[in-house]
């Protein structure tokens, strides 16, 4: 059994991670650290876990963990890693943005549909951002054939859980409900990792990616639409997408335009291709907390430990 630990256990992504790991057939959840909830039952922060576990939050991580998930938030993971508090032999999966951009560190970028073989041999993984995951899944097949030779336009909308558990002026219910807004237009922090991946797979990629992020009046999920000028037909591009994702179990190229409800509470991504007026339009949907965060983290863990990629992640969409 893989012994797992979590640091930063009180937030949304940690809650999803706990739920998955408690049911994972090859994992023992050993330690969940939250300084603010130390000594309390996990279900005090995650009420839906009541009746499922009697584990309590720890103040310090168990040194017997084989894998550690860092869920403390952006800017905090580096201090944890550099603080020498992690088990020396443990594999690390960081869900923050601290190590996503290549630099003087040993973390590998953990998008399985791009780096599966690298992930299998890695000890340290930087889990991708939620917007970045969805947008990259819409663009990677085109980049793989050097087809991103025109400016790329992206609009994407996310649910309120993407902003974290602590309410802010733009996430609390009375503001978010019956409302929509853009934020960080053309300069969102996920652009760096998106461009990095496109440059990795399409040598010489230099096209601008014009990204407009939006806040939606719903809880979870992301819908991204990406379009650019392209001479190839929709059928040709659809075939390319199906070939690219043929070996990737969580991505489905759909014949119909996807909606968020079809993927909520799953680790799935649905991608759709169409062509209008010389523009190829690719739309994609994921659950921001699962394929965009905790589900993908467990997918990475499975690969790192030589397990079936889908183990523990056969999650079903909510029926409406």
From TrEMBL:
Belongs to which family?
Answer: Belongs to the NAGSA dehydrogenase family. Type 1 subfamily.
Alphabetized HAMAP family for the sequence: ArgC_type1
Highest taxon listed in the record's lineage: Bacteria
* UniProt catalytic activity: N-acetyl-L-glutamate 5-semialdehyde + phosphate + NADP(+) = N-acetyl-L-glutamyl 5-phosphate + NADPH + H(+)
Q: In which pathway does it act?
A: Amino-acid biosynthesis; L-arginine biosynthesis; N(2)-acetyl-L-ornithine from L-glutamate: step 3/4
Listed EC numbers: 1.2.1.38
Where is the Semialdehyde dehydrogenase NAD-binding domain positioned along the sequence?
Answer: 3-122
Which residues act catalytically here?
Answer: 130
Signal sequence interval, chain numbering: none
Q: Which GO terms describe its biological process?
A: L-arginine biosynthetic process
| GO molecular-function term, one example from the UniProt record | NADP+ binding
Top-tier EC class: oxidoreductase
SUPFAM superfamilies under this entry?
Glyceraldehyde-3-phosphate dehydrogenase-like, C-terminal domain, NAD(P)-binding Rossmann-fold domains
Report the protein's function.
Catalyzes the NADPH-dependent reduction of N-acetyl-5-glutamyl phosphate to yield N-acetyl-L-glutamate 5-semialdehyde.
Q: Where does it localize?
A: Cytoplasm
NCBIfam families recorded for this chain?
Answer: argC
Q: Which PROSITE patterns match?
A: ARGC
Q: Which organism is it from?
A: Gracilimonas sediminicola
User: How is this protein named in the record?
Assistant: N-acetyl-gamma-glutamyl-phosphate reductase
Keyword annotations of the record: Amino-acid biosynthesis, Arginine biosynthesis, Cytoplasm, NADP, Oxidoreductase
Which is one Gene Ontology cellular component term of this protein? cytoplasm
């Amino acid at each position: 059994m893989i012994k797992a630990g979590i640091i930063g256990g009180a937030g949304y992504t940690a809650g999803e991670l706990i739920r998955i790991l408690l049911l994972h057939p090859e994992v023992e959840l050993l330690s969940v650290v939250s300084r603010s909830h130390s000594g309390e039952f996990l279900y005090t922060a995650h009420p839906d876990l009541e009746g499922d576990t009697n584990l309590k939050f720890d103040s310090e991580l168990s040194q017997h963990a084989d894998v550690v998930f860092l869920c403390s938030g952006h800017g905090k993971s580096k201090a944890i890693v550099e603080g020498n508090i992690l088990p020396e032999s443990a594999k690390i999966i960081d869900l923050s943005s601290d190590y996503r951009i290549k630099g003087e560190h040993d973390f590998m970028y953990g998008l399985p549909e791009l780096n599966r073989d690298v992930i299998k041999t890695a000890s340290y993984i930087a889990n991708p951002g939620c917007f970045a995951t969805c947008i990259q899944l819409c663009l990677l097949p085109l980049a793989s054939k050097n087809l991103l030779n025109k400016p790329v336009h992206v609009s994407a909308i996310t649910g309120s859980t993407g902003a974290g558990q602590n309410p802010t002026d733009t996430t609390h219910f009375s503001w978010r409900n019956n409302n929509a807004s853009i934020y960080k237009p053309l300069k969102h922090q996920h652009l760096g990792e998106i461009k990095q991946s496109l440059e990795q797979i399409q040598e010489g990629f230099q096209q601008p990616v014009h990204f407009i992020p939006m806040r939606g009046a719903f809880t979870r999920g992301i819908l991204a639409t990406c379009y650019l000028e392209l001479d190839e037909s929709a059928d040709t591009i659809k075939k390319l997408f199906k070939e690219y994702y043929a070996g990737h179990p969580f991505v489905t190229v759909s014949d119909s335009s996807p909606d968020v409800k079809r993927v909520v509470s799953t680790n799935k991504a649905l991608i759709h291709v169409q062509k209008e007026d010389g523009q190829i339009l690719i739309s994609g949907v994921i659950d921001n907390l699962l394929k965009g965060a905790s589900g993908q983290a467990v997918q990475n863990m499975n690969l790192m430990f030589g397990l079936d990629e889908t183990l523990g992640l056969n999650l079903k969409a909510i029926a409406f």
